[in-house]
Design brief:
The complex is a heterodimer. Chain A is mostly helical. Chain A is 49% helix and 4% strand. The chains are: A mainly alpha, B alpha/beta. Chains A and B meet through helix 16, strand 11, helix 27, helix 30 and helix 31 of A and helix 5, helix 7 and helix 8 of B.
Amino acid sequence: MKSFRANSFKRAATALVLAALGGGLFAASADETFNEQVLPLLKKQCFECHSHAGKIKGGLALDSRSGWQQGGDHGTALVPGKPEESLLIKAISYTDNDLQMPPKKQLSVAEVAILEQWITQGAHDPRESEVAQAKKKGVNIEEALKHWAFQPMNAKTGSLPRLLSSGLASNQEADRYTLLRRASLDLTGLPPTREDIDSFVSDKSSDAFAHVVDRLLGSHAFGERWARFWLDLVGYADQVGTANNVAAPQAWRYRDYVVRAFNVDKPFDQFIHEQVAGDLMQSGDVVQRQDQIIATGFLLLGNINIVEVDKAKLRVDMVDQQIEKVGKAFLGMTLNCVRCHDHKFDPISLQDYYGLAGIFMSTESVYHTGRGVWSAPTFAELPATPAEQARLQEARHEHEETVAALRAKASESKQSLGALDARIAAAKGKADKEVSLKVKNENLKELVDLMRQKSERLQHVRSLDDRLAHLDYIQPGTSIACATHDRAKPADTQITIRGNAHALGSTVPRGFVKAAFSGSAPAIPANQSGRAQLADWLTSSNNKLTSRVTVNRLWQKLFGQGIVPSVDYFGLRGEKPRNPELLDALATRFVQIGWSQKKLIREIMLSPAYRQSSSAPTNPSLTAQYRSRLDAEAIRDSVLAISGSLLPASGGPALALEFPENVSGLDPKSVNPVAFSVTKFRPEQANVRTLYLPIIRSSLQKGPGEILDIFDFAQPAQLQGQRFITTVPPQALYLMNGPLAKNEGGRLGDQLWKAPAKDDEARLAELYLRVLNRPITTDETAEALAFLATFDTPIPASDEVPQRKHLAWALLCQALFTSNEFLFRL
Amino acid sequence: MSTEPPLFTRRHALRTAANGFGMAGLAHLLAGQAQAGVVFPNHAPKAKRVIYLFMSGGPSHVDLFDHKPRLMQDQGKPLPFEKPKLERTKTGNLLPSPWTFARHGQSGMEISELMPHLATCADDLCLMRSMVADNINHNGACLQMNTGEQAFSRPSLGSWLQYGLGSENHDLPGFVVISPAQPAQGAPLWSSSFLPATYQGTLVSDLKRPIANLGNERYKPARQRTELDLLHQLNQQHAATRAHDSSLEARIQSFELAFRMQMQAPEAFDVDSESEATKKLYGLDDPVTETFARQCLMARRLSERGVRTVQVYHTATSKRSSCQLWDQHGNLKTELPNNCAAIDKPVAALIKDLKSRGLLEDTLIVWGGEFGRTPTAEGNNGREHHPFGFSMWMAGGGVKGGLTYGATDEFGWHSTENRVHVHDLHATILHLMGIDHTKLTYRYSGRDYRLTDVSGEVVKALIA
């Protein structure tokens, strides 16, 4: 019975059994004890999983003395003389839910006592012979280190321009219409406008395409497009965790920071440094300092279980997520497996993992809010520029006025309630009087009327109070951001056995992933967390992964496919680079040009490799251009841009918490945090870029964001460098019947058929130019005219001409919005 | 359904042509992400489909399925042993069940008086009274029950089944979740996580308008047909100028399928077209049972049409809707009977209805919440969360009817006999569906993941 597992009982029982065993155990020689008591027990209960004849689970073998001396993945199995420090005893006494051995059936009290006694007496083990060491399961580190990704950068690659033209460009250059559309979609997620097309097609200069690329790289839309790719790797959402819809009201600051970083072409090494350790950097410039603080949101914005009661578990889970994120986003490595055991395939050990864990355990990331069991990610106040301070003053002033007016109204209402009470009392007195039936009825009626007035008034007062509570919640204040800071006492951390926060193993000095680095890693001073050194380590020229992983991601965005197709995983079980020389040439060049993404993108895009026409995706070299379906954001944003509905937006809060209907749980006594909903959208949100819509983790995306989940949005609980591209009927249903293509098709159609002094041919030409960004062909004109003609016959008969015109053009536009040519980047 | 993986092969093209909501599973076999050479089912399945009735909030085992006379004997006394470290709030002394239990059916299964209809199905139930889970909060526990993992994002049971087995009906989603209100944290519970998005559950929350974008009120079907014909023409011309490309082809097909689907899917969800007798059997005529009756009946109709997994969340009664209906921290004596009244008749009807249609034998019904509730009192009329020992049951689909398996200690606290951990339950469900849980894997970031993580054992004793 589990209750018997309680420790106190256990010890008493052990004592009893030992007493019962009498002097036998003590009298016997140590050899005899081992051979007669201990070894048979180990054989019977442990060898199945912990011997060379069986398996060597957890890296632990008990079939030789050296086996337990060396220990398993979690360190030495037992400490002679100290049963209380011995993992083996912990495991067999079932005191820990995550370390219970043997897993199927607990040892008897007597059996536990035998092993406990053996260890207490010094764990005498007379076995001299080494068991023939079968190859230990797991990674052969030496072999694994030969893996391509752990080799230093190839210093002898051909020049990048040569590599980008020879061999890679097997097709001829794409026509200008296709090329312009491709470049626009790739860099901004938006199609070219008519003017863009006209100017490129008529530009006869040799650097016409360079002009296009420069214009696109310089546009604000570039950052809006590329920021989203990065957010996919961060697990970004406007919600903290998934429980109870808790808003991460400041998450948008991180999103906008990423947009800014891409737009100003922040050197990528600096971008990394700010996200990992921005709080530890310094700047005299207020705006730059804000960005440094906001950037650390990278480490916090993810799927954390903030309602976890077990705060020790919450902390190690959070650290695990941070390690996973750093590992995946920058190193292309899966480090989180190593929380429980040495990596099964990659040369990454528990030492590496817990070295990083020490860094993040020395960093404040979550705190207990004091509302029930809830925690929240840590935050920091942002310094303000004088202009921002002035704006805040103004906003506060305005807010105070609104609140004061409302308060006055509320207190007035409350007072009038008092007056009403007096009238009700009087009316009650009157109603109680013995008078004629008619008078009595009138008196009663008066009372009922007053009571009704009171209930209305009460309701009014309550609604005023609700509004005041909501106003209090959204009052303007000093800007804050989700941000980390170092703990007061940074320290190395202990291994958590099988990831269990309460089963602690040996302490591991803070450090980094050894396989990823050549030379000696930066030293971490005892009084620092080590995040600054981690950033240095990540961006050092001795790091073999960061620059390769980054240029590979970039390549994938421009060619649909990474040079290493498994963009988030460069380990032994990942895919090999299709063109290792090109990968290293890009990585080397990237560092050479100061980690500038824009410069590298430009060089790639001007190459024949990028400019060639696309093939069906069967080219095994996988470095050619190929077609791929647009992602959800590009589809929605393009449709809105073409119909003229797209609004420019420059970021800010996505959750419309200023609407009381989007906020609940304001009662300060509640044990649950304030919750948001996305019931009501700001009117303009229907027409802003998809990037700026609220991202929720606990449900599908709502309202105008509905399209995201239908078209393979990266789930915000995941970190994902490349999205799936599926083809499923709900996508077709959405385009056929959903609001986007229908409404915008109608809008575009109306613009076209209502345009004066044009014939239908001209209208069709414009339609094709706007939607497909190319001239219409003669055949297509004929077909479209035939389609329009079918509307000459009304269905139903009552349809009037304008309705039919509207419908004909709306459906034509919608058909184009749903066509493959529109949905694919070619 | 198709995914466009890095490498395209002729076989892949063939598969993408069989485009459907569900289609065959393991689309990624060809992309090398599943364990090579394994085809599911990998042994003869006992069940072909699952209906999982999820009682969100944590139903009280000691008041429903795990009769503990000792609680009455020792009522008001403290639990006579140390409680586990993992505790949300301190609970008080032992609280006996306010309800009586009786033995039912030939098996003599003990069921509380709160489930009179279900009790008539006792001999079909395979009751597990020794369930164990690891998390004490709704979020972590719901996640574990659905995905095997408490904290991080992983594919759900339904997604794994869909990935392994695919769907039998190409005009309907293969994994449907019916929940009028959002349970716990919502979407992560039926997420496909790192599996392709195709495998995620399709949520039906509006029972009247089950699938989004299915209808088009603005245009007449004839007009839409004309539009689709034009679209077809556009796409054909576009494809004609290029070498064969399965991704273009698949998308062309998907519009045709969608058009067919909008004709056929409404029928599948049309609960109102059932006979009066059936509606009455489920309790569609009574406001108390109406909502859950509608959910169960919808589940039956979908299962019947080949939907692989239907998950039915109990999140609304006639009185209230909540993400945690079964979370009786207080008001045990009024709310638990309310919940039972809302589901008892529909659930029993589902079992009987499937049986009379000959579908019960290969339809697996699973009933349970994310954990049970403490045998000790929270306040004077409530119970706390309790993952250490609780009850769930299965029926049909190759399980032993009338079996009471496992036990908790005499207070209903710890699972002590034949413990069934969530991983074991998952392993067993997959086994019944013809899948070896250790073989259904997906390689993500270099690691082969599976529903049961690194544990789970098939509970053979439950299998008929």
